Amino acid sequence: MVDLQLTRDALLSSTLNHGLKLLGDRWTAAVLLGAFTGVKKFEDWQSQLAIPRSTLADRLSKLVTLGLLRQQPYQERPKRQAYHLTPAGLKLYDQVLMIWMWERRWGQRSRTLPGYLRHQTCGKAFLPVLSCAACTEKTGMNDLTFSLQPVPALLLPAEDAGRNARVAASGSDGMGLGLRVDRWALMIVTAVVLGCHYFDELGRVLGIASSVLARRLSGMVETGLLLAQPDVADARRMRYRLTPASRDLFGYLVCFSTWASRDHLHLPSSIRPAHKACGHRFVPQVLCSACREPVLPWAVTFSDQPD
After folding, report:
1. Of 217, 264, 223, 220, residue with least CA distance to 237
2. Which of 36, 54, 104, 183 could form a disulfide with 20 if both were Cys (CB 3.0 to 4.6 A apart)?
3. Is residue 55 part of a domain?
4. Residue 84 located in a structural domain
């Protein structure tokens, strides 16, 4: 039986929730992904993303203000600015690799992303492997248990923001992950992971208006992010379950939540995973599939060819 009040407080005060409010909109996520794949010029972002100039300027300014990007004059055109990731921005690398993985398998932008990663440490093409930092074993959602401990310092601001949930949830803030995943979709996936499978449960723990939640769930079912099945005890109720596509978002969710906790908010997460195999608190670490060494941003190159 799910404790809905506890789950609600944990979701509202989660570092995932607060981090997504900061960086979870469609264009910010797309700009960050571009920065990690080598985009540095305003015109290149605009060309690749078909993003309005004013919107792009706003997102770049926001990332500079947050200290994740820095500006530097072009060598060939000193009056124009290039954008480079800062040391703080590079700490987002694990979650960017998880975005890349999800996009390659499920997204609609795979043709515009580099098709291969090469690990310079071992010299081989590789896939990112989500692992436990304590024991280095490959780890998936089913390998973890979750405990909930709401964070009071984050709960009150989240409750204040929740009063505007109807407006926020009905806005177009898609992350650009296949143009169908946004902050609210990620929070719905997280609620399902924590055991909330029914409409009334999801509405209670997320604080979304019923009409908005109905549209969200319908859209997620239509695009393959959720599976809706009649409940065995009451066929009038629909039970929502994760699909392979939404399960594959787990790597992104846990890496992003860890970044928000450790590097942005400097507070513990209210959703605390533990690794069943080793018994330690789960801290994600991304390893190279070829050499099983940690993947660092300066040791990876992107390519459209396997060799």
Report:
1. 217
2. 183
3. no
4. no
Closest-CA residue to 240 (of 194, 277, 273, 207): 194
Q: What's the CATH code of the domain at 197?
A: 1.10.10.10
Cβ–Cβ under 8 Å, residues 226 and 217? yes
> pLDDT tens digits, residue range 183-198?
889 999 999 999 999 9
Cβ atoms of residues 154 and 107 within 8 Å: no
Residue pair 98/251 in contact (Cβ under 8 Å)? The answer is yes
Residue spans of alpha helices (H) in the chain? 4-12, 15-23, 26-36, 42-49, 53-65, 87-90, 93-106, 152-162, 165-170, 183-193, 199-206, 210-222, 244-247, 250-259
Over residues 114-130, the pLDDT tens digits come to 788 999 999 999 999 99
The crossing angle, in degrees rounded to 10, of helices 183-193 and 4-12 is: 140
Longest CA–CA separation in the chain, Å: 69
How many alpha carbons lie under 13 Å from residue 66 in its C-beta half-sphere? 23
CA distance 54 to 235: 49
Confidence of residue 177 (pLDDT cuts 50, 70, 90): very low
**Per-residue burial over 67-89, b = 16 or more CB atoms within 10 Å of its CB, e = otherwise:** ebbbeeeeeeeeeebbbebeeeb
For residue 41, being part of any structural domain is answered with: no
CA distance 246 to 157: 28
Phi and psi angles of residue 292, each rounded to the nearest 5 degrees, phi first: 65, 25
